[in-house]
């Protein structure tokens, strides 16, 4: 489906979030919450591949243009409250999807309000990336966004210097990453300042967790995924074959099709507690 409108929603503290809506704006659909170092634009190809719902609303979280600033009181709680504003606006939404940090936000939101379905791709939780916080803070204080991107890619994501060099070779891509890196320290600090809850998504009728096959059981994303999974024991668990954390950029159509297949009207999730990941996409 194609993008039809963009909504701007005030979220308090002189900030706001924008939401890119694909499909029928007034129809019940899917709300998508991107994570750190990502924005709504990066999810456009996934959104256009989704057709199991008549609409897809992709949140552009605060801290990235054209949404508003983080503000001085920013915390993980801020993110959950912002998402609440979005869900109030799109009150007919049938499902909520979150990626990475956005997955954690989605699962926490489902602790506070009843939701029909929550889907999370490699959600992360404390103590994810805490070792990199001092270096991120130092780079942020000098507005050295080039270093922030390098720290995120190498020290947090665990990729090598060659990967950084390949991204830096494309000036447009690197500039976009530098812009998206500005809230990185605040977001990671907020994630780690919140004690991990004993359980998540307790008010969701159904929860589906997705892990990229390349990350299954592997630090940092696969092991953080396992930490989250322990706190949502009734969730269906699914694998996206051949992919890691950046499936929305590297295989957006395949990810979109997997999300389609998890719609409540589609195929069932793994039986709760069976413990075996499914390979839901070839």
UniProtKB/TrEMBL annotation:
Tree of life domain: Bacteria
Q: Which Gene3D superfamilies match?
A: alpha/beta hydrolase (3.40.50.1820)
Q: Which residues cross the membrane?
A: none
Task: Identify the Pfam families for this entry.
Answer: Abhydrolase_6
Protein name (Swiss-Prot/TrEMBL): Alpha/beta hydrolase
Record GO terms (molecular function)? hydrolase activity
Q: Which residues form the AB hydrolase-1 domain?
A: 30-254
Q: Which UniProt keywords apply?
A: Hydrolase
Q: Where is this region: Disordered?
A: 263-282
